[in-house]
Specification:
22% strand, alpha+beta, 632 residues, seven-stranded antiparallel β-sheet
Length: 632
């Protein structure tokens, strides 16, 4: 679930603004006050992650929203030429059943239950009005990704990666780091466009395990998300470590050696002699202790063969063949710090430092964080705009890739309903929403049954039917109140085509999803608007987050009524209403928390007071008219 949003210098928002989100969050306010700005910041993140062009850090114009150029979205109140967008995500253990990472591996219950918060923030810029490409494809300037576990409230268990766009020439940087420019691919160069401020130390979990003292100097990005660390390591150090593993690790160590390790060892007679000296001392010690047995004689013969013809493969074979206690004794001797340091010093003698580039995964918790953010914004965001596709007798097949998405205008509603009409879902029946607010009991039913239930409750339609017409598209027909005759949507009120996509989209998505609705009340009778608030609350209770922009005072008042109706504060904890207004520094988002009695203690000026003001004016006008008539 989206827990917090952080926005700065984006459209109507000037200074940094933090907004806390709840399962049901409603934004209300006057026109052009900034209600859509926060919604568009989420849509910008989602359409960027969903883009197949991974090297684009920010996609301004996509399938969810079209924002124009960078200059169009940079706030007029901005005190810097950078836009900042960030968020906090709160993972939920139950998401492990249906949420997978970028490698198509489902997150485990343990991963999701262990995480308290995943924080992300980025800054990007457009290079000025005349920058051409950068205006349409902004450049990433800074990235912060932070993981906070539940078990470490003190913060000691936090993991963080912080990136900053590198200044200066890359070739100069490579020279300082003693990396050969000729050996660097274009992809590797791109990974060094950002310098790693955090973490200060890095140990690859795989890739080049022999690398000693690796320096994390760059990162491979997928859009704005870090995916792999680019690091440099000393080649000779890695070769020495590879050689050392032969004497300290089980298995086929020789087959895992770093390129050049064999040559480094075999070209250094002094190092070979030192190794043989340590081995001989242990073999002779064990022979003295255990006596001249058949086993000791066999080991002695095998060692003489190594002494006569020293090879890396021969060493590996020797350790595989000798008795375990001989092998363990030799490994214990090489594990001594003085032995290791002497061996490394001997191997390095006369060798110049040379660093190479390699890539490895992010540290474990950060890898989870990046994957979770990617999965959330690519799979769990659903957006339905204020306008609907005009009603049609048959809805042409739109070729939508996502079979669970009704489209931003509801254009795929008929196809999605026809495909999933028999899909079983959990939902809260309309008849029980006001009677079981403390502990509502979801029931299992087909999507068609659930949609029909809520349509009837709202008084919009009694029944609906879909039919796949092949290449022509999908037919959608409904029956209205007091009639059993089915009609296509061109012959019924527009309220059906307005409400139906909302119901289908919200009922079909899984818990943990984030549903964004702009002005869902358009074309709806006040009674339907009121009951729509009941539906949104039922969706939020099921763990599906709803973020709504509205001008409907009927929806707001219904939420207040539900807060008062509930026997406790369960509704007021689920729902938050923000009043949005323009301030001197940009949009201001004032939370109006309902108490358990449905009252708003900080009712702001201009918050749906037109009805009361107009009613008062009517009364005054009527009283004045009556007074004038009485005086005659």
């Amino acid at each position: 679930m989206l827990k917090n949003l952080y926005v700065e210098n984006f459209k109507s928002i000037g200074r940094r603004t933090a907004v806390e989100l709840t399962p049901l969050t409603v934004f209300a306010g006057s026109n052009s006050s900034g209600k859509s700005t926060l919604l568009q910041s989420v849509l910008l993140l989602a359409q960027t992650v969903q883009s197949n062009v991974f090297r684009r850090p920010v996609v301004l114009n996509g399938s969810l929203t079209r924002l124009g150029t960078f200059s169009d979205i940079l706030s007029a109140k901005a005190d810097s030429p950078q836009i900042s967008i960030g968020f906090d995500l709160q993972p939920r253990p139950e998401e492990s059943r249906y949420l997978s990472n970028h490698r198509n591996i489902y997150f485990s219950d343990e991963q999701l239950s262990r995480a308290s918060c995943v924080h992300f923030e980025m800054k990007f810029s457009g290079g000025g009005p005349g920058s051409g490409v950068a205006q349409l494809q902004p450049e990433l300037d800074r990235v912060t990704l932070r993981y906070t576990p539940k078990a470490e409230p003190s913060g000691t268990g936090k993991s963080e990666i912080a990136l900053r766009r590198r200044r200066g020439e890359l070739d100069d940087f490579f020279t300082r780091e003693k990396v050969s420019v000729s050996a660097i691919s274009l992809q590797e160069r791109a990974s060094f466009a950002f310098e790693v401020e955090q973490p200060t130390s890095y140990k690859p979990r795989w890739g080049t395990p022999q690398a000693q003292n690796p320096k994390a100097l760059g990162v491979h990005l997928q859009h704005f998300l870090p995916r792999y660390m680019s690091f440099t390591y000393d080649v000779v150090d890695a070769q020495c470590e590879s050689i050392y593993r032969i004497f300290t690790a089980t298995g086929q160590a020789a087959q895992q050696s770093v390129d050049g390790a064999r040559d480094l060892l075999l070209s250094n007679p002094e190092a070979c002699g030192f190794i043989l000296k340590i081995m001989r001392a242990q073999i002779e010690r064990l022979t003295d202790e255990r006596g001249d047995t058949a086993a000791s004689q066999r080991v002695a013969r095998q060692f003489e063969e190594i002494d006569d013809n020293f090879t890396v493969d021969g060493l590996d074979t020797f350790f595989s063949d000798i008795p375990a206690f001989y092998r363990q004794a030799i490994w214990t001797a090489f594990a001594e710090p003085t032995v290791k340091s002497t061996l490394f010093a001997t191997l390095k003698r006369g060798k110049k430092e040379e660093r190479r580039i390699s890539a490895g995964p992010l540290p474990d918790n950060l890898d989870f964080s990046a994957s979770y953010v990617h999965s959330f914004f690519s799979e769990r965001i659903r957006y339905l705009g204020p306008l609907r596709d005009e009603p049609k007798p048959i809805y042409p097949y739109g070729g939508s890739i996502d079979a669970l998405d009704v489209g931003t205008k509801g254009e795929s509603t008929a196809a999605v309903l026809d495909l999933h009409r028999d899909t079983e879902i959990f939902y809260i029946p309309s008849a029980s929403i006001k009677h079981t607010l403390t502990a509502p009991t979801p029931i299992k039913a087909s999507l068609l049954v659930a949609v029909s239930d809520w349509l009837q409750y709202m008084g919009v339609a009694n029944d609906l039917h879909t039919n796949d017409q092949g290449k022509l598209g999908h037919e959608l027909r409904v029956s209205t109140a007091n009639s059993s005759t089915l009609h296509d949507l061109t012959h019924v009120g527009v309220g059906v085509s307005q409400v139906l996509p909302i119901l289908i989209q919200a009922l079909l998505v899984e818990p943990g999803s984030c549903l964004i609705f702009e002005q869902p009340e358009l074309h709806l009778h006040p009674k339907v608007q009121t009951k729509l608030a009941d539906f949104f609350l039922s969706v939020a209770i099921l763990g599906k987050q709803c973020i709504i922009e509205t001008h409907s005072e009927y929806m707001i008042n219904e939420l207040r009524f539900l807060s008062a109706l509930a026997p406790d504060d369960s509704v007021s904890k689920l729902a938050t209403v923000y009043f949005v207004e323009k301030g001197s520094d940009g949009s201001i988002y004032e939370p109006l928390k309902f108490n358990e009695f449905g009252a708003i203690s900080n009712w702001p000026d201009g918050f749906f007071d037109e009805s009361e003001d107009l009613a008062a004016e009517i009364i005054r006008a009527a009283m004045n008219k009556r007074a004038k008539k009485s005086s005659k």
